[in-house]
């Protein structure tokens, strides 16, 4: 069971209040988000995105049709920025309501380098290099592994990026495919570190491989902002169903190795970095929310709970309303208040599907649970 201190929740709340205060000081709306002002995501098929939570299907342009400079100030992303500057948010209304993702502390660490203008004149601050679809797993909710490899070589992207993007970025991020098994990841490290040694690196990995010396040597060269390890189930059979043919034992072994590597850096005079657990909440693992949070407590990882909206056939929202009610009340009976509080992103979308009277009943019962556990504590 999670500790009563619920330290991550306390930190998140403090961070959110601090970010809101920064927005007020900067004259920005409370529902502002810096992402469309800072971030470019290059997908394997040439589509260009900006927000990782919007997913690979949410495009602001195509590198095969326009230059990166044109896409960065094209009509759609300028409209997106206008919404955040005015507070009249439509494009991200659902995400802000259900996730509060605009208050993400990691994204808001770039506020000091953000140009709060609809038309951007400064270089891109954060670059996400999803250059290839190659992955060693075939996750049921993911289609990236079906995407091409090598497109950015064919369009001569590297030469221009070496001059116009890589020297100026403050963060580089890897999300899709498996970055630690792609040669372009190491090519980027070799290219960027000499010209931009203070760039901070983020990786999302499935940990379905053995951590070898070569990878550790490359990581030693980097200022690592964080690593997110994606584990969508802690039951071997369920894991191999969600992540087709995946081996949970291998993932847990490598996760421990990454954690040990993280701890060893400090002893060698290198910066330690945070590790997050990525858990995509969906039909097949809704009952494992508590297990994921307990694992975070055990490993000293920060939980990153994401809700599967699409593909809709894997989303809890695809269940009929009675099943969704059953899941919510199962949480009341089987999880602690701390679990529910920490996993609220997995609960909120379902809660909003209920009729008002059912939602009120659930919230009343949840309050009673909180008070009862506080009394017992």
Give the strand tally: 11
User: Helicity range of the residues?
Assistant: 40-55%
Structural category = alpha/beta
Total number of helices? 17
Order of helices and strands: HHEEEHHHHEEHHEHEHEHEHEHEHHHH
Q: How are strands sequenced across the largest beta sheet? A: 3-2-1-4-6-7-8-10-11
Shape: globular
Strand content: 5-15%
- Overall mean pLDDT score? 92
User: Can you tell me the residue ranges where pLDDT is under 50 for at least 5 consecutive residues?
Assistant: none
Question: End-to-end distance, in Å?
Answer: 13 Å
Specify Rg, calculated over alpha carbons: 21 Å
Please describe what this structure looks like:
- With 377 residues, the protein is of the alpha/beta class.
- The protein has 17 helices and eleven strands.
- The chain has helices at residues 7-25, 35-38, 68-72, 75-86, 93-99, 105-108, 151-154, 157-164, 183-195, 213-220, 236-242, 248-267, 289-299, 321-334, 337-342, 344-351, 356-376; strands at residues 39-42, 47-49, 61-62, 126-129, 138-139, 171-174, 200-205, 223-230, 243-244, 275-281, 302-307.
- A nine-stranded mixed beta sheet has the order 3-2-1-4-6-7-8-10-11. It has a two-stranded antiparallel ribbon with strand order 5-9.
- Helix 14 packs parallel to helix 17.
- The longest helix is centred in the last third of the chain and has 21 residues, at 356-376.
- The protein starts with 6 loop residues before the first helix and ends with a helix.
- The mean pLDDT is 92.
């Amino acid at each position: 069971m999670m500790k009563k201190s619920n330290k991550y929740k306390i930190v998140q709340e403090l961070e959110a209040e601090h970010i809101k205060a920064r927005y007020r000081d900067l004259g920005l709306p409370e529902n502002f988000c810096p992402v469309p002002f800072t971030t470019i995501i290059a997908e394997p098929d040439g589509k260009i995105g900006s927000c990782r939570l919007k997913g690979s299907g949410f495009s602001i342009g195509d590198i095969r049709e326009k230059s990166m400079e044109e896409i960065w100030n094209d009509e759609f992303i300028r409209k997106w920025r206008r919404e955040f500057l005015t507070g009249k948010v439509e494009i991200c209304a659902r995400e802000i309501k259900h996730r509060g993702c605009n208050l993400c502390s990691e994204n808001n660490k770039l506020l000091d380098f953000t140009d709060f203008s609809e038309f951007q004149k400064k270089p891109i601050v954060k670059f996400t290099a999803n250059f290839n679809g190659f992955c060693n797993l075939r996750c049921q909710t993911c289609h990236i592994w079906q995407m091409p490899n090598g497109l950015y070589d064919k369009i001569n992207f590297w030469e221009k990026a070496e001059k116009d993007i890589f020297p100026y970025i403050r963060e580089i991020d890897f999300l899709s495919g498996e970055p630690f098994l792609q040669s372009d990841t190491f090519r980027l490290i070799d290219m960027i570190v000499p010209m931009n040694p203070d760039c901070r690196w983020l990786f999302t990995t499935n940990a379905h491989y053995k951590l070898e010396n070569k990878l550790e040597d490359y990581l030693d060269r980097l200022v690592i902002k964080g690593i997110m390890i994606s584990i969508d189930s802690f039951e071997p059979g369920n894991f191999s169903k969600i992540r087709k043919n995946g081996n949970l034992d291998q993932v847990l072994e490598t996760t421990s190795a990454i954690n040990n590597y993280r701890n060893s850096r400090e002893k060698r005079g290198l910066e330690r970095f945070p590790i997050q657990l990525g858990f995509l909440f969906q039909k097949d693992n809704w009952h494992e929310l508590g297990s994921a949070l307990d694992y975070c407590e055990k490993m000293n990882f920060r939980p990153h709970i994401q809700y599967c909206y699409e593909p809709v056939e894997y989303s809890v929202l695809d269940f009929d309303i009675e099943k969704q009610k059953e899941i919510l009340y199962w949480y009341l009976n089987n999880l602690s208040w701390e679990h529910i509080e920490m996993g609220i992103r997995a609960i909120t979308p379902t809660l909003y599907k209920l009729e008002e009277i059912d939602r009120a009943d659930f919230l009343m019962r949840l309050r009673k649970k909180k008070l009862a556990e506080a009394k017992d504590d």
